[in-house]
Amino acid sequence: MVVGSMTDPKGDRSKGPTQQADPDLFTHVVKKTDEGVVIRGAKAHQTGAVNSHVMLIMPTQAMRPEDKDYAIACAVRSTPPG
Length: 82
What we know:
The protein is an all-beta fold. Strand 2 (28-33) and strand 3 (36-40) form a beta hairpin. The strands form two sheets. It has a four-stranded mixed sheet, with no helix packed on it. It has a two-stranded antiparallel ribbon with strand order 2-3. The chain is built from no helices and six strands.
């Protein structure tokens, strides 16, 4: 299994995730269910990510309390069933 990691596109670097004009510029939780969470948002490929089986998603900057929905780290399969 090949694992790749991804980074944030950054947007306006003087602002945190909740202050960006586009809320999907950073990956964030949009829904919580009994089965887990639904995430949405942008990530930029890093070397090898396009050939990876699993993408590691994690914030690349410090988060403040108001950014809690953006403070998620997880592994996402690039070829999910179906």
